[in-house]
Amino acid sequence: MQLTFLIVGLGSMGKRRIRNLRVNGEEKIIGYDIRIDRRKEAETKYDIQTIDDFKILSPDNFDVLIISTSPEAHGDYIRFALRHKKHFFVEHPTSDDGYVDIFKHNHLDIIKAPSCTLLFYEPVKMIKKILDEDTIGKILAFQYHMGQYLPDWHPWEDYRDVYFSKKDTSACREMLPFELIWLNWLMDSQVKDISGTITKVSNLDMDAEDIALATLKYKNGIYGNVIIDVISREPFRTLRILGSNGVLEWERFEHMIRLYDATIKTSSLLPVPKGNPEAGYVNEEEMYNAEIKAFLNAIHGKATYPHTFEENLVNLQALFHLIETQ
After folding, report:
1. What per-residue string of b and e applies to 254-264 under the rule 16 or more CB within 10 Å gives b?
2. Is the pTM here over 0.90, yes or no?
3. Do residues 225 and 217 make contact, with C-beta atoms less than 8 angstroms apart?
4. Torsions phi, psi for 208 (to 5 deg)
5. pLDDT by residue (tens digit) across 138-182?
């Protein structure tokens, strides 16, 4: 039986989720957004039915909810999905609104899936395999820096009008716990302690923070330095992992993983396959397609979804602690 999907929010991520569903063979899609321009674009570009009033839609009209709104609205739609026993997928949050409700309803026979996109990213999967094979020995510490200029995130609209320039839903608050999902996977642990700074240093026209600098201690003893910024005029994701027998380095836009072997004092380069971004987007589509496939597989009982709201909450709590200590 083919499922019917309701996508709440038809901005850049909502439209991406339409594409992801289509790639995975799903055609029965309804879109909801209060903005007429977004509804018209989704109707024209993807030939889907859209609605402008959530209240007119009966829960009997769909099977699965995909929540692609800005973060401050997630909680209400999570509670709606739980109340009507609908499978749901939600984009990454900046608050834990809705989490108490999720944990209260763990008994429900529905799939509750938080976004974990980078677990499906090819270079991240390659790095995980290298680390699991002890290629650089025991992991001791790492550095990671993710940077991109905020006005370049959505060049088609004024950054000052978008949720990621608002204090409570800022890009830095969103990306720190989001990046921790895959970093924790690589480190095979969760953050035990966090300290550092989250603040604003640029002249961007917003109240939101534009840089976070965090020192992490993991439960298994690994230490890490993480910088998240939205002021870098050149986009990058740069990772360096120090092992007892070598070093792993990855810069996303160079499409290479560099491995240094201390036993032979030699470096080697592993090419990383390039993905295919949608026109106007920076990130490759493949990992998002794979993420939604994992969600669908969980709904159909084929596999367990690889990330939980319990794990996500630990990352959010690390963010909250950093904010509270400023």
Report:
1. eeebebbbeee
2. yes
3. no
4. -70, 155
5. 999 999 999 999 999 888 889 999 999 999 999 999 999 999 999
Best CA proximity match to 88, nearest among 179, 28, 30, 5: 5
- 181 vs 315: CA distance, rounded Å: 7
Q: Which residues contact 191 (CB under 8 A, 6 or more apart)?
A: 180, 184, 216, 217, 218, 219, 314, 315, 318
What is the distance between the alpha carbons of residues 87 and 93, in angstroms, rounded to a whole number? 18
- Pairing verdict, β 29-32 and 87-90: unpaired
Maximum C-alpha span of the chain: 68
What's the Cα-to-Cα distance from 104 to each of 57, 66, 82, 99, rounded to whole Å? 26, 20, 10, 9
Q: Contact at 8 Å (CB) between 28 and 1?
A: no
List for the chain the helix, strand, coil content (%; round to 5): 35, 25, 35
Q: How many whole angstroms separate alpha carbon 66 and alpha carbon 74? A: 10
Q: Is the distance from CB of 275 to CB of 290 less than 8 angstroms? A: no
Task: Give residue 239's Cα distance to chain centre.
Answer: 17
